[in-house]
Amino acid sequence: MQIKTTPVGHIAWCEPSAKDLTPQDFAVSVWQTKNAVVGQSKGRYTTWFVKTDSAQTWVLRHYWRGGLIGKFNRDSYLYTGLMQTRAMAELAILETLHQEGFAVPRPIAANVVRFDVRYRADIMIEHVAGAKDLVAYLSLQPIAEQQWYALGQLIAQFHLRGVYHADLNAKNILLAHERFYLIDFDRGELRQPNKGWQQANLDRLLRSFNKEQTKLPSLAFSQQCWQQLIDGYRNVNAI
């Protein structure tokens, strides 16, 4: 990761072709004027897919506040140091995991804009071609038992490395060409492995599957699917 100072804050980049990005390049309107917005993903807020001059597709995401506080403060955070900002911290953990060969999108760049004692931030990551989040995938078709097993193994590998995912849910798992990826490491950490937070991660994931199935009863998820995932997880932890 390299970092440069801008007139309004800092930009960090991991991808060489991102070194000339300006703060303005983190506004979707700039890409829209170039007809370079090629897609979007809508969750709580919209994430944009943008096509670069070098024909790469990047995911552009602004950091928005959620919950009750988000009704009064949409997107500003208290500044306590550059590497403690949500964008820089997420870019850093992605860079570490990607370099170590973990199944995460390639980190591209992050932008932090300072004002007074607060900041706003954005991040860019690589778009995983052909990927669907697991809820979108399971709403159309099931996956095989061995894939559930493989997903459990993948999560266990992250946990053994000490990767704490603050929001491990079914929509933050991508499936592309028979390979799973974990995304959205906002507020994620590298911690000492511990069964307490690891089990809490798994419990959160199960709750998300159950919640999505409540909204869509035809979702291709069952207790047998979850058991296969847990069997794969335990297999790695037993080695």
Give a written overview of the molecule:
Strands 1, 2, 3, 4, 5, 6, 7 and 8 form an eight-stranded antiparallel sheet that branches. This protein has a three-stranded antiparallel sheet with strand order 9-11-12. Strands 10-13 form a two-stranded antiparallel ribbon. The protein is globular and about 55 Å long. The longest helix is centred in the C-terminal third of the chain and has 21 residues, at 195-215. Helix content is 33%, strand content 26%. A hairpin with a 5-residue loop joins strand 4 (46-51) and strand 5. The protein is α+β, with helices and mostly antiparallel strands and 239 residues long. The protein has helices at 28-33, 86-99, 134-138, 145-160, 195-215, 223-238; strands at residues 2-6, 9-13, 37-42, 46-51, 57-62, 77-78, 107-115, 118-126, 132-133, 163-164, 173-176, 179-182, 189-190. It is built from six helices and 13 strands. The two termini are 33 Å apart. It holds the Pfam family Kdo. Belongs to the protein kinase superfamily. KdkA/RfaP family. The active site is at residue 167. Catalyzes the ATP-dependent phosphorylation of the 3-deoxy-D-manno-octulosonic acid (Kdo) residue in Kdo-lipid IV(A) at the 4-OH position. It is an enzyme of class 2 (transferase).
Main beta sheet strand tally, sense and closure: 8 strands, antiparallel
List low-confidence stretches.
Answer: none
Shape: globular
Question: What letter string, H or E per element, gives the SSE order?
Answer: EEHEEEEHEEEHHEEEEHH
Mean pLDDT: 95
Distance between the termini: 33 Å
Q: Which percent range describes the beta-strand content? A: 25-35%
